[in-house]
Amino acid sequence: MKRILKIIIPSMLMLLLIYLWRDGKDILNGIYIAFPIMYIALGIVSTDFKLELLISLIFLSISFLIPINMIFNMGNCIDLVIIYNILSFISYLIKKKIKK
Fold first, then answer.
1. 53 vs 3, residue with greater confidence
2. pLDDT reported for residue 39
């Protein structure tokens, strides 16, 4: 149950932040500051189970792409998601390197 919550909580937090910023004032701050920090934190918090990180990144990316395209009509944000996923994976690798 704890592992499932670790996978679902970041995507729910992402949806909550997007819902709170739906009026459009702070969404750019979210896209360029808050969301990359969420991805980096996800890479740090993830356990040594790589499949958990992968599933969590998929859920987080879906919860980022769909509302951004539907609510804000910002078009294609796939390049941002790719960069954020790389950041998350790099933070995961750094955490593993420090643990050793």
1. 53
2. 92
